[in-house]
Amino acid sequence: MGNNMNEIINPLNKNNLGHRQIPLNTVFKNSIGQEFIVIDKLPDLPEYHGNIYVCKFIKTGTIKQTTAISIINGFVKDNKDNHSPNICNIAYTDGLTKNDVGSKIYNVWKTLIHKIYNTNYGSYYKYGAKGVKLDERWLHLKNFYEDVIKLPGYQEMLQNPNILYNFDKDILQSDIPINNRIYSKDTCMWVPWYVNNNQSKIDTMNRNNFASKYRGVTVYTNKNGIASYYVEVYVNGKRIRCGCFSNEIAAANAYNWYVSFKRDYISELNDVPYMSVSEWIKYKKHKPNFIKLLYHLVPNKLDPKDII
Which domain holds residue 248? Predict the structure, then answer.
């Protein structure tokens, strides 16, 4: 193989090119179709076994130093090429880097792309494979950055650097089946990790059963078509089953009552016609055991007259 600037070497057809046999002035094409020319080889560096090369991308003039293995396998990419997708062959960095948008936003965006489009990604089965979508506007990092700094929770995240915040799509779409949810500026928000974790657990519970339209309530229907409504809450990462109700509105009120007393923060409550304890408890099955549970969950918060 000669040093031919007109010859383009595709990484998928390496022609037995050895790792230390990168010819200078040869044009290569990476895995997403960007063309670059190898213009120099640096002095041998022991830690890299001597195979560090200087490449220049033809379209943008971007200069990069990389290994022979990266050249041969098509891994070296030009992030300044605004017209070629450089993440998963579908998303565009628009010439922006972590330094431009911040590591947090850049990493969230890149992870989203992989979760939705990369079939080999570890959590793809929970997102792209389930039908979760990404707004096409967010295939461009520039658009993603412009949108997410305006979303709910972003300023709070900046003001609380010691609290880990997650990028959440589920809270604002809790009434939508998971396979129909989408990452977009209208459906996402920044939330503390414990809020995001609680929502994930509720979604897991609802996927395995029949989800009520109310948070924390799961519907079971027997062979006669009679529905029962089970309530579960999570306290300090532990699931507490709060029992079964014969009325969905009562079950939703029960959930609101528990989380109002037991959470270290105010979880999002169900938007439901209000019932007092004495009203919703009438729909609770197995009351004697349930009353013991109430006192265990919220000692000194329950007036015995409420359950008469």
Answer: 209-308
